[in-house]
Amino acid sequence: MKAVVYKKPFEVAIENVDDPKINHPNDAIVKITSSCICGSDLHMYEGRTSAEPGIVFGHENMGIIEEIGPAVKERKVGDRVVMPFNVACGFCKNCLGSFTGFCTTVNPGFAGGAYGYVAMGPWVGGQAEYLQVPFADFNCLPLPKGKDHETDFSLLADIFPTGYHGAELAGVKPGESVAVFGAGPVGLMAAYSSIIRGAAEVYSIDHVKERLDKASSFGAIPINYDDADPVKQIKDIRGGNGVDKAIDAVGYQATSAGSSAAGGEQDEVPNIVLNQLIEVVNPTGALGIPGLYVPSDPGGVDENAKRGALSINFGRLFEKGLKLATGQCNVKNYNAYLRDLIIAERAKPSFVVSHEVSLEEAPDAYVKFDRREDGYTKVVIHP
User: Which domains does the chain have, with CATH numbers?
Assistant: First the structure.
């Protein structure tokens, strides 16, 4: 089959790789109809992880079941399904505790597995024609037959649940004010989810015009951090007050003002957003941190950053009595509920998608998405 294969930093190619097979009685083979390019894929694409050449990318996958193993009982050939990016068994201690993002079965020696991602197990990615899905009854979320809501449903694999997870980590409640740092796909979904949860004011902080325009389109208040310190901007709007909750949807490749989106040089400051969250949230508030931070960053700005050790103002965090919660999303906690919101026309996350491309067009899409060219904010591949 054809697949998107990582070659070296800033280069992927479409190559022929082995077709997936039923390796265990509870496996399924899914013919991929949609697979998204994620901002997390860009970390590998840019060489900012230990990913080796040859890995097939793609952890946001949906499609039609083409084959099932003899132990698969709930899912059937022909079912339309979307898979959480978390590969999970459903029966280990963490899975039984609803921490499916930290399954201890699927990636021996590590808590957590994912398709097509470095250090997340042997699972081949789905930016390809077919995908092997283990523990298929547990990992395949059924969808209505047909082609309705294709792009909306594809976002149930990762960014819609992950954005919602950010709001959950922060404990966003009706009537609250929320600052979401980052208006990439996950940041937009975090802001959108905060509004779904009833937040009265949601601030979306970024410096890419297309992203801020999308945030405005569903009622978030755009804050361009190239204009001034975003914490000061928000406090000026709110009469000197901060917000109740804040969400970090940026992660370890955070940048300072005046970077490439404004025509200047990219200037990474990996701890900047964490410290801005601490400053913008009112005393006794909470921080949700779904943005990706890693224990090893080969391209880190200094020796501490290269080993994931970042300096944060813990004294201010303590002084203000703030709570914080982190960790990758446990997609299974949210995806069925969010699916039903989409079916009921109460949510339409596909507004975040800027481009839909064929598999053959994926290498060019990676280049443009990484450079934020031509309005690229979220890409869906249709093999």
Answer: 2-158+330-382 (3.90.180.10), 162-326 (3.40.50.720)
Predicted confidence (pLDDT) per residue in 330-343, tens digit: 999 999 999 999 99
Rounded Cα distance between 270 and 35, Å, is 29
What's the pLDDT tens digit per position in 147-193?
A: 999 999 999 999 999 999 999 999 999 999 999 999 999 999 999 99
| Model pTM score | 0.94
pLDDT < 70: residue spans in the chain: 258-266
